[in-house]
Amino acid sequence: MNYENKNDFIRVRALVSGRVQHVGFRYWTCEQAEKLGLTGSVENLSDGSVEVFFQGRPDRISEMKLKLKRGSPLSVVSQVIFYSEQIKPDETFFTSLL
């Protein structure tokens, strides 16, 4: 299967709960996504959780899911809920939203 075609990409929304704010979680998430060649965004939510959108090759999506479940070095992840999303073919980078 040719994964260079964005039609083969998958997009996921993740809601990450636990101690995930004020511990470098967004910065860490950006680093992990960039290493995996994923595009998307990460943002703190008002309820203390973090929302992550990421898209890319299916194998890289699986790796990112595992990373989010483990969390960053200073975080304590209690729950991650994943949702399938429509891909955004024009998205070209991963960013942290304020």
Question: Brief description of this entry?
Answer:
The chain has 98 residues and is of the alpha+beta class. The chain has one domain: 2-Layer Sandwich (Alpha-Beta Plaits).
Description:
- The protein has two helices and five strands.
- It is an alpha+beta fold.
- The chain has a single domain (10-86), classed as Alpha-Beta Plaits, CATH 3.30.70.100.
- It has a five-stranded mixed sheet, covered by helices on one side.
- Helix 1 (25-36) runs antiparallel to helix 2.
- The longest helix has 13 residues, at 58-70.
- The chain is globular.
Question: Could you list some keywords that capture this structure?
Answer:
98 residues, Alpha-Beta Plaits
Q: State the low-pLDDT regions, or none.
A: none
Compute the number of structural domains.
1
Write the H/E string, N to C.
Answer: EHEEHEE
The residue-averaged pLDDT reads: 93
Number of helical segments with 4 or more residues: 2
Can you tell me the CATH topology? Alpha-Beta Plaits
Taking the alpha carbons of the first and last residues, their distance comes to: 37 Å
Helical fraction: 25-40%
| Helix/sheet category | alpha+beta
